[in-house]
Specification:
With about 475 residues, the chain is α+β, with helices and mostly antiparallel strands. The chain folds into two domains: about 270 residues, Uncharacterised protein PF07273 family, DUF1439 (Bactericidal permeability-increasing protein, domain 1); about 150 residues, Bactericidal permeability-increasing protein, domain 1 (Super Roll). It is about 20% helix and about 50% strand. It is built from nine helices and 26 strands. Strands 1, 13, 14, 15, 16, 17, 24, 25 and 26 form a nine-stranded mixed sheet that branches. A six-stranded antiparallel sheet has the order 18-19-20-21-22-23. The chain is rod-shaped, with a radius of gyration of 38 Å. Keywords: Signal. InterPro entries: DUF4403. This is DUF4403 family protein. It holds the Pfam family DUF4403.
Length: about 475
C-alpha cells in the first residue's frame, strides 16, 4: 500500500510541477511593469586618419607653385658703406630641396636680382648722381624648418642663409666693389623677418577649403524609414609632419567630428567650417563613421507582419501557430512585440491568446539580416489550458519566432550606401583620394520611445594616388 501511494504521489506531482514551471516561465516578464528608460544611443561620430606620404617630386611641384615669384622688392634700400639701391629679387628657375633631417630642408632657390645701385646723396655721392644698373643671377642656398600653421598657412620656424650662390661686383669710378656680403646681409635680414616664427609665405587654405567643400557637403540616404540627410561637423583636425629617410614629406592628417541628422528637405547647403589644427600622434589609415538611422514602430510593424502575420508556422509535430495583429514598442533596452495567436493541434483542438514578446535586435553579418536574440515572452490572455500548453512549448515557440523574425537587408544596404564610396572621394590637382575596403553594417540598436534607432558603422581605409 505504501509503495502504491508513493507511485501515485509521483504521478500526480510531476504534472503539477511541469504546469507550475510553465506558468512561472510565462510570468517572468511583466508587460505592465516599468522597465526603466531606454539607454540613449551614443553621439554619432565620424573619424578619419590618413597618413599621407608626399613624394619628393610632388612636394617640389607644390613648393614651386606656392612660393611667390617675387621674393623681395624694395626701393631706397640702405646697403651700408654709403651705398643705396632699388632691388627686386625674383625666382628664376626651379626650386630644389633636400631634407637634412626629419624637420629641416635645404633649399636652392635660383633668383634674378634686378635694380639700381648708387652712392648716397652726400659727400662723393653728391658729385656722382648716376646709378648703376644691376641684373645678376644667383642660386642662394637656405636652410629652413617648414611648418604648417593652424590656419593652413605654410611658414618656417627658422631660417639660415648657407651661401649666396654668386657674386655681386660693380664698377664704381673704375674700381671693382664686391657687394656680395651686403646682399647676403640683406637676404639674411629679409629671411629673419619673413621666414621665421612660422610667418606665412604660402597657404594651403584655398586647396583645403575646396577639398572639404567637396567631401564635407551634406549627403542623404534612402533607408527603410525614408530619406534622411546627414552632415559631418568637424570638432578637431589634427596633423603631424616630418621628412623620412627617403626624402618623402609625411603628413598624418586626422579629423574627428559629429554626425548630425536632418530632414531630407532641411539639410545644410554647405559644409561646416574646419577648426584650427592640433597635433596628431596617430599613424593608422582608418575611416569610421556612425550614421544614425531611425525606423518608426509602424514601419517595423509592417516588416514583421510581412514575415509573421497570418502565416502558420509549426511549433512541433502536433501544433501549428498563426500570429496576427502584430505591433512593436520599446521595453527598456529591449524591443517588445505584441501579437495575437491561434494554435491548432492535430487532434482538432484550438487555443488562442495574446503574447507579449521581448528580445534584443541584432545583426547577422553572414546572412546580412536583422534578427532578434534572447527572446522571451509572456502570455497575457488565454485560458488556463492555453497558458499551460504555451508554457510547455515555450522553448520551441521562441526558436520559431527567432527563425521567422529575420529581415534580410543586404540589398537595402547596397542601394542605400552604394554611393557613399564615391561621395567621400576627392580629386585635387595633386592627388586623388578614394575610400577602399568599405564595409557598412549595423553596430548598435537603441529602442527609443518613437522609433528604433540603428547605428550604421561605415569602416574602411583611404587610398591615395599622387599625380
Amino acid at each position: 500500500m505504501k509503495l502504491q501511494f508513493h507511485r501515485r504521489f509521483i504521478n500526480l506531482s510531476l504534472p503539477i510541477a511541469l504546469i507550475g514551471f510553465a506558468l512561472f516561465s510565462c510570468k517572468s516578464i511583466n508587460p505592465a511593469a516599468n522597465p526603466g528608460p531606454s539607454t540613449p544611443p551614443p553621439i554619432a561620430s565620424a573619424g578619419v586618419n590618413v597618413p599621407l606620404k608626399i613624394p619628393k617630386e610632388t612636394l617640389t611641384k607644390l613648393l614651386n607653385s606656392q612660393i611667390p615669384t617675387t621674393l623681395l622688392q624694395e626701393k631706397g634700400m640702405d646697403m651700408g658703406s654709403g651705398i643705396t639701391g632699388d632691388l627686386e629679387l625674383k625666382r628664376n628657375g626651379t626650386i630644389k630641396w633636400t631634407a637634412l633631417d626629419s624637420q629641416r630642408i635645404q633649399l636652392t632657390v635660383p633668383i634674378n636680382v634686378v635694380g639700381e645701385l648708387g652712392l648716397k646723396p652726400k659727400g662723393l655721392g653728391s658729385l656722382f648722381q648716376s646709378k648703376l644698373p644691376l641684373n645678376e643671377d644667383f642660386s642662394p642656398v637656405f636652410i629652413i624648418d617648414p611648418v604648417i600653421n593652424a590656419n593652413w598657412g605654410i611658414g618656417a620656424e627658422s631660417f639660415e642663409l648657407v651661401e649666396l650662390g654668386g657674386n655681386l661686383a660693380i664698377d664704381v669710378l673704375g674700381m671693382k666693389v664686391d657687394l656680395s656680403g651686403l646682399l647676403s646681409k640683406e637676404l639674411q635680414k629679409w629671411g629673419n623677418v619673413n621666414l621665421t616664427d612660422g610667418k606665412e609665405i604660402a597657404s594651403l587654405k584655398t586647396l583645403v577649403d575646396l577639398a572639404w567643400a567637396q567631401v564635407g557637403k551634406p549627403f542623404s540616404i534612402d533607408w527603410i524609414g525614408g530619406n534622411t540627410a546627414f552632415s559631418i561637423q568637424p570638432q578637431q583636425v589634427k596633423i603631424n609632419e616630418f621628412f623620412d629617410a627617403d626624402q618623402n614629406y609625411n603628413l598624418w592628417l586626422g579629423m574627428d567630428g559629429k554626425v548630425n541628422s536632418h530632414p531630407a528637405d532641411a539639410a545644410p547647403t554647405r559644409a561646416f567650417p574646419l577648426p584650427g589644427l592640433s597635433s596628431n600622434e596617430n599613424s593608422a589609415n582608418e575611416l569610421e563613421i556612425l550614421i544614425p538611422l531611425g525606423v518608426s514602430y509602424s514601419t517595423l510593424d509592417e516588416l514583421l507582419q510581412q514575415n509573421l502575420d497570418g502565416k502558420a508556422f509549426r511549433v512541433d509535430k502536433k501544433t501549428t501557430m498563426i500570429p496576427s495583429n502584430i505591433s512593436t514598442q520599446a521595453f527598456g533596452d529591449l524591443l517588445a512585440i505584441n501579437m495575437d495567436f491561434k494554435a491548432e493541434q492535430t487532434n482538432g483542438k484550438t487555443v488562442s491568446g495574446t503574447l507579449f514578446v521581448v528580445g534584443k535586435p541584432a545583426y547577422d553579418p553572414d546572412s546580412q539580416s536583422l534578427k532578434f536574440e534572447d527572446i522571451n515572452f509572456k502570455m497575457e490572455t488565454g485560458s488556463f489550458g492555453a497558458q499551460t500548453g504555451v508554457g510547455l512549448k515555450k522553448r520551441k515557440i521562441i526558436r520559431r519566432i527567432e527563425d521567422r523574425a529575420i529581415f534580410p537587408i543586404g540589398d537595402v544596404l547596397e542601394e542605400s550606401f552604394g554611393s557613399i564610396t564615391e561621395r567621400l572621394g576627392l580629386s585635387t590637382p595633386i592627388l586623388n583620394l578614394k575610400i577602399a575596403d568599405l564595409t557598412i553594417q549595423p553596430s548598435g540598436f537603441y529602442p527609443m520611445a518613437k522609433e528604433l534607432v540603428i547605428h550604421m558603422k561605415a569602416s574602411g581605409e583611404v587610398d591615395v594616388k599622387w599625380k
